[in-house]
Amino acid sequence: MKKIDLHIHTVPNGTEPQFDFDLEYLLQYVATQELDCVAITNHNKFDREQFENILENVAIPIFPGIEIDLEGGQLLLISDGLDLNGFHTSCQQVQLKEPSKAQPLAADDLYEIFGDLNNYLLIPHYDKNPKVSDDVLEQLKEYIFAGEVSSPKKFIYSIKDDSRLVPVIFSDARMKAENASYPVRQTYIDCDQLTFNALKSCLRDKNKVALSESDGNKLFQIFDDGQQISTGLNVVLGERSSGKSHTLRRIYESSEHNKIKFIQQFSLVSSDEEKEKDRYNKILRDQHSLVAKDYLDGLQNVVREVMDIDTDHIQRKIDAYLTSLVKFAKEKDKHDSFAKAALFSEERFQIRDQNVLEQLIKSTQNLIENIEYKGIVQKHVSLRSLKSLIIELINVFRSNRQQNQEKEWVNDLITDIKRKLQVKTAASGIPDLDLYKVAIDLTKVAKFKKIVNLAKKQKEIVRKPISGFEVVATVGPFQGAMEIKRALGSKCAFSNAFSNYGNPYLYLQELKAIDGLPASEIHHCFVKIDYHVLNKDGYRVSGGERSEFNLLQEIDDAHKHDMLLIDEPESSFDNLFLRKEVNALIKDISRSMPVVLVTHNNTVGASIKPNYILCTKKISNSDEVTYHVFSGYPTSKKLKSVQGGEVSTWDITMGCLEAGHEAYEERKRGYEDIKD
Amino acid sequence: MKILKIDAGSGYYRLDMESEWLPIDSIDKSGLLGLLKLFLNDDVEMDPYDEEKLQNQTHQIIYRSISEKLFGILDKKDMFKDEADRMFMAEYEKYSQI
To answer: Is there a contact between A406 and B56 if contact means CB atoms under 8 Å apart?
Structure first.
């Protein structure tokens, strides 16, 4: 098998941090990782001079290429290198167009610039961001047979699915001296002579590509020292302080963090009740989007309506109005001619908005224009009737509108005349007061109080089965300022406001006054939402069951990632449970992605039947201490390290899982004794 | 028809041919609306404001405001109707073809 990497960068792309190409790094990369063929593919450009320099120094076949921003994603275009001039000219045309994510090239541009695409090897980002869209793949399907993926999980997914392209995985790495290690993402191909055409031919056939040299897609490389792990379930064993957790962490660092799900030791248990609640809230919000949002949305609308109503201000306006009205009446005898004019004490016309009628017209329009349910609508109401209905409604609307405009005109005139009379007279005027609005606003406030009190009533709002458990959401009143603070995750102080919690309107005013509390969060402060998890018998979960639930959620979440790492799950569980359900779960997920499990629990380690075993060992001699990893299939008698060392599988298993051979025998005898 | 006049130092208005002339300081908001409607729909006459002829100060203020505001829309009499007719114009056109 030949090892290839056809996606390598030697020139920065303009948006990433600058780097200097280091030829020595590239040479070391090729040597240490034992590559047989590479391609140089920089973003939207081809540096000919640099390429020719590399060509002189690299012994393996090396093809010139370019990574192009193409409608929706990115694509590698690789040439056989026989006509460097021509290729360089074409790439210059690409560079001139200055393609970017915002303004990518189109498939047609490729034909225009490169001519017959059969002369090139085209590899789009397939299961790798930014993905090339299906439309473009369809357009170019004559020339595309392989697609780049970003992880072993995705590689295997494409292999298994007949409808998908041949997967390839490459480093996409920058060749710079500052790199801490060498890339480990390459593809093996079953190819004798590495010519351009042979390469293309191999990449048409899923049977000819693999993640490892001699183990097909069962194993893949994880560290640049050559260490491999299984694409299925790996168990990491080892005595204390032999480097198990360190190895796990190295694996975590080897890839982008958001692609790897890492369940750390003890992360499944929590003795803090409050932390548990936060965890449930987060899990249930993110993964299951339980009804919290729905329940509170209604409250949010109500709060918004009432937010700007100031009852004190309203009361003051009413008082001012009544006072001046009475005064005016009392002074009537003393009024001069200005104050006696009818318009002096006249009120403006009330103008009502036409929102309701407007909605009605739109609804009628909807009934007329809807296509999906036309049959049903017209079975009950004729189109003719609907049309004459809408015409009449529009006529009413227009007539109202005209009258409203005229009244507005008159209102302006009244205001103008009143002002002028007021200037001349000694009498006091009567302020304008829209009593209708006052009545509406006070009603809104009263309704608001009722609604909030109803919303606060303790009750269950949702029950949802999740993985053999039941999650129950309940609502109720907050018991104290701290609870509100925690629910919002806010730094603000709520104690002052909370003293008015029993009066929703006053409470709202206090909340508005809190510095740092956004208006959009206020509706969260009225009602508390709690989640509880119940086991299958209907009781609140015990500590161990809670860990189980947490594990189930974490594993569920893992499906979205490319790899799962679990560090000593036994720390969170008791033995019996761990064997049955958890094993099944872990085994199941390992069928679709690589899982690495660190354990020294014999229940897990032995019975879970891993695909691959890794064993960490600390070796100290007089001079120094070194850490090694020995690995192999569980059925093999010996485990090997990349340095060439060997250990016996039996010894290791006894040592790590059974605390030694004697202890094993002893325990075995013990079980025999109590067996009936 | 005449709707506003100045006579013997005072201002007067009326809302139809048959009714009496009423002093301008007695006009209320429905009276103003009535004047507006007459002004928009018919050819009406109005005595222009004249400070010397109109001696009563209260009358001066009221008469001046009204006549100025009405003269202000003399060449835009259709504006309220036009504005209203613009509402739902497309829908009206579409559905009135039965």
So the answer is: no
| DSSP, res A578 | I
Nearest to A153 by CA among A214, A229, A208: A229
- What is the C-alpha end-to-end distance of chain B, expressed in Å? 41
> What is the percent of chain A where pLDDT is above 90?
54
Token digits for A603? 């229940």
Q: Do A337 and B33 touch (CB under 8 A)?
A: no
What is the pairing mode between strands A563-567 and A595-598?
parallel
Cis check: omega of the bond before A17, within 30 degrees of 0: no
Using the Cβ of A392 and the Cβ atoms of chain B, whether some distance falls under 8 Å is answered with no
pLDDT tens digit string along B38-58?
A: 999 888 999 999 889 998 899
Q: How far is CA A505 from the centre of its chain?
A: 37
Q: Is B27's CB within 8 Å of A342's CB?
A: yes
pLDDT band for A144, please (50, 70, 90 cuts). Answer: very high
| Sheet of A595-598, strands arranged across | A260-263, A563-567, A595-598, A233-238, A612-620, A625-632, A638-641, A646-648
Quickly state the pLDDT bin for A659 (edges 50, 70, 90). low
Is the torsion defined by CA of B6, B10, B15, B19 positive or negative? negative
Interchain contact, A402 vs B84, CB within 8 Å: yes
| Nearest CB partner across the interface for B57, out of A405, A417, A424 | A424
Write down the residue that tokens 């779960």 correspond to: A585
Chain A residue numbers touching B33 (CB-CB < 8 A):
349, 406-407, 410
Beta-strand ranges (E) seen in A44-145 are 62-70, 73-78, 121-127
Partnered with residue A617 across adjacent β-strands are A628
Instruction: State which residue of chain A sits closest to B67, comparing Cα positions.
Output: A413
Asked if residue B5 has pLDDT above 70, the reply is yes
Report the residue from A338, A343, A398 with minimal CB separation from B84. Answer: A398
Which DSSP state fits A162? T
Pinpoint the alpha helices (H) of A504-570: 504-512, 543-558
Bridge partners, residue A173, by sequence: A8
A362 in contact with B, Cβ within 8 Å: no
Is the pLDDT at A294 greater than 80? The verdict is no
Q: Pairing mode, if any, of strands A37-43 and A2-9?
A: parallel
First to last CA, chain A: 56
The predicted complex's ipTM stands at: 0.93
Please give the average per-residue pLDDT across A177-192, as a whole number: 92
Task: Compare CB distances from B88 to A361, A399, A412 and report the shortest one's residue.
Answer: A361
Q: Do A394 and B29 touch (CB under 8 A)?
A: no
* H or E segment and range at residue A575: helix A575-577
Q: Do B33 and A410 touch (CB under 8 A)?
A: yes
Task: Tell me: pLDDT of A379 over 90.
Answer: yes
CA distance A431 to chain B (A): 16
**CB within 8 Å: A405 and B33:** no
Q: Do A401 and B87 touch (CB under 8 A)?
A: yes
Q: pLDDT band at A237, cuts 50/70/90?
A: confident
A419 touching B (Cβ < 8 Å): no
Residue A432: what pLDDT? 84
Q: Return d(Cα B93, Cα A332) in angstroms, integer.
A: 56
Cα separation, A665 vs A651, whole angstroms = 14
What Cα–Cα distance (Å) separates residue A76 from each residue in A110, A553, A603, A612?
12, 38, 48, 34
pLDDT tens digits, one per residue of A91-131: 999 999 888 888 888 888 999 999 999 999 999 999 888 88
